[in-house]
Specification:
By secondary structure, this protein is an alpha+beta fold. The chain has 2 domains: 5-84; 105-340, Bira Bifunctional Protein, Domain 2 (BirA Bifunctional Protein, domain 2, 2-Layer Sandwich), CATH 3.30.930. It is 39% helix and 17% strand. It contains 11 helices and 9 strands. The chain has a 7-stranded mixed beta sheet with strand order 1-4-5-9-8-7-6, with helices on both faces. It has a two-stranded antiparallel sheet with strand order 2-3. Strand 6 and strand 7 (254-263) form a beta hairpin. Helix 1 (5-14) packs parallel to helix 4 (50-86) and helix 5 (105-119) packs across helix 10 (313-321). The two termini are 72 Å apart. The structure holds phenylalanine.
Length: 345
């Protein structure tokens, strides 16, 4: 039996494009195709010759099929390359890069603070952004005629509710939730969004973030407050040399109330323009929870004491990254936001 394999393989190799290859294929495998004929010829042979001839013919068929497939792959690749180079496509250039988003700097710092405080046994509480006058003011020892209301320019709603001006209303909400079966210590943090009808400038925003902290137990003292604040600020500001100082500060829901300062990171206490030559930077207000507020929360002030602090997150973020304009946080400028390339958790 003749073996035309080489002739067939060279016909396949010689097919210059996909159309030519299709013609070769139909010549070989179509109806009355030459390869089919070869297989059919085997059945005409004397019986003893058929097994060997059948095997040989089948090998030819397999080899020719493989050559066809390989050639088809080559030709289609070449056709694609030709088409792409006609459009000036350069496969050695990197592909378009997909931009991965990044966390907002306030989120980064908030997550770090939450991690830190939960590691110290605090739990995270939430409260409503649309708050009642009662929780935002009265329950915090700020009745309607109290001058302290003047310092919080509130967005009032038509139904008498308001947009909370601070996260402190969650203090009393939390105490009430736990009061029935009070198991000290109560240790919570409340990160959240707050609103004030402020005129926006470099240091004021109408929408801002606070993180309230609250601890109630037997024998809680100012020393506990100082220790907690020092530990937390050392971590978020990344400064082991950080010192704190308390000055008196007035908030009706704490007694005594304080403004807590940290030694200036820019001049290390010597005095510079950032700290207005004082060596200290005001960072957050805090104090011992007023007995009236504990009572509002259903907790007996004769048995328990506690401290609270209200951290302005923007302020901490600004100090940490050296940002000098609070409006950048909500300005929507992607060039600002892209600088904080922390991979989202
Ligand atoms: N809620 C107060 C404010 O926003 C801050 C504060 C919180 C002060 C807790 C003392 C204790 O101004």
């Amino acid at each position: 039996m003749k073996d035309p394999r080489n002739e067939w393989l060279s016909a396949i190799a010689a097919a210059a494009d996909e159309t030519a290859l299709a013609a070769v294929e139909s010549r070989l495998f179509g109806k009355k195709g030459e390869v089919q004929e070869l297989l059919r010829a085997v059945s005409q042979l004397p019986k003893e010759e058929r097994p060997a001839a059948g095997k040989a013919a089948n090998e030819v068929k397999v080899a020719v099929e493989a050559a066809l497939t390989a050639r088809r792959g080559d030709l289609s690749m070449r056709a694609m390359e030709q088409e792409l180079s006609a459009h000036g496509f350069d496969p050695s250039q990197p592909g378009p890069q997909r931009r991965v988003g990044s966390l907002h700097p306030i989120t980064i710092v908030q997550q770090e603070l939450v991690d830190l405080f939960t590691s110290m046994g605090f739990s995270w509480q939430d409260g409503p952004e649309v708050e009642s006058e009662h929780y935002n003011f009265d329950a915090l020892n700020i009745p309607g005629d109290h001058p302290a209301r003047e310092t919080q320019d509130t967005f009032w709603l038509d139904d008498g509710n308001l947009l909370r001006t601070h996260t402190s209303p969650v203090q009393v909400r939390t105490m009430r939730r736990f009061a029935q079966d009070f198991q000290p210590p109560l240790k919570v943090i409340v990160p959240g969004r707050c609103f004030r009808a402020e005129t926006v400038d470099k240091t004021h925003e109408h929408t801002f973030y606070q993180m309230e902290g609250l601890v109630v137990d037997r024998d809680v003292s100012v020393a506990n407050l100082i220790h907690t604040m020092k530990t937390c600020l050392r971590v978020v500001l990344g400064r082991q040399d950080l010192k704190v100082r308390l000055r008196p500060g007035f908030f009706p829901f704490v007694e005594p109330g304080f403004e807590l300062d940290v030694n200036c990171p820019f001049c290390h206490g010597k005095g510079c323009s950032v700290c207005k030559q004082s060596g200290w930077i005001e960072i957050l207000p805090c104090g011992m929870i007023h007995p009236n507020v504990l009572r509002q929360g259903g907790i007996d002030p004769e048995k328990y004491t506690g401290f609270a602090f209200g951290m302005g997150l923007q302020r901490v973020v600004m100090l940490r990254y050296g940002i000098d304009d609070i409006r950048l946080f909500m300005g929507g400028d992607a060039r600002f936001l892209r600088q904080f390339q922390t991979v989202p958790k």
